Amino acid sequence: MIEDLLPAGVAYAEAFDDHSAVTLFPEEEAVIARAVDKRRREFSTVRYCARQAMKSLGLPETPVLPGERGAPQWPAGVVGSMTHCAGYRAATLAYARDIVTIGIDAEPDEPLPDGVLEAIALPSETSVHGRLLFSAKESVYKAWFPLARVFLDFSEAELSFGDGTFSARILVPGPVSGFTGRWLIRDGFVLTSIVVPVA
Ligand SMILES: CC(C)(COP(=O)(O)OP(=O)(O)OC[C@H]1O[C@@H](n2cnc3c(N)ncnc32)[C@H](O)[C@@H]1OP(=O)(O)O)[C@@H](O)C(=O)NCCC(=O)NCCS
């Protein structure tokens, strides 16, 4: 499913069920040593996906550890993004010589909990499908953070949506002034992606 949102050159893998026997590296085990089962399963399966994407890029399998503010640490010369929600996990990876940054996000296609839309939407965004807006903002953050290394609030990007596409205008100074992305809603999931090619 995620491949429909990705250009050539981006390796990906996705899973709709958890893999029962994922072998984690000891450094990864240490990260989730005290995690509840749900977190352990999403962490492990999305890393299984990341390993598959590494293999398709011809890279050796290496640990994927959370770095600054939780951003995944990729091997040198590689950029990527991961997401997990109930019933879905995906990892995307590309060479930095081809792609500047990636952000992907998956959400269940369900109404947002009460109060969330009001918390994340700018006035111009309130008529958008709430889950789609939320997912697209998460993709913006995941694409933004590896470049900017500073937090970006929900109020600091203004999004507008087209047919399967969206644009984000970044409202604070930083390394980029905006992103374009793609979205789909299928089989009970909302998926969004941002992939910035090297100019
Ligand atoms: C970090 C955040 C984006 C994760 O999104 P989510 O929908 O909760 O969860 P997902 O399952 O889709 O994504 C989790 C993955 O995101 C990645 N991630 C976490 N922090 C990240 C960061 N700072 N930068 C890039 N990727 C990050 C990790 O790979 C993580 O998986 P892992 O913990 O197994 O390694 C979200 O929790 C958050 O903090 N949002 C606030 C900031 C924001 O969204 N601003 C909007 C700007 S318009």
The CATH C-level class name: Alpha Beta
Largest sheet: 5 strands, antiparallel
The multimeric state of the shown protein is single chain
N→C terminal distance: 27 Å
Second CATH tier, the architecture: Alpha-Beta Complex
Number of helices: 4
Portion in helices: 25-40%
The chain-level mean pLDDT equals 97
CATH topology: Ribosomal Protein L22, Chain A
Order of helices and strands: EHHEEEEEHHEEEE
Please tell me what the overall shape is: globular
Low-confidence stretches: none
Describe this structure in words.
With 199 residues, this protein is an alpha+beta fold. 25% of the residues lie in helices and 32% in strands. It contains 4 helices and 10 strands, in the order E-H-H-E-E-E-E-E-H-H-E-E-E-E. The longest helix is centred in the first third of the chain and has 20 residues, at 37-56. The two termini are 27 Å apart. The model has no long low-confidence stretch (mean pLDDT 97). The structure holds coenzyme A (COA). Coenzyme A binds at residues 43, 46, 66, 69-72, 82-84, 105, 137-138, 140-142, 145, 152, 154, 157. Mg(2+) binds at residues 105-107.
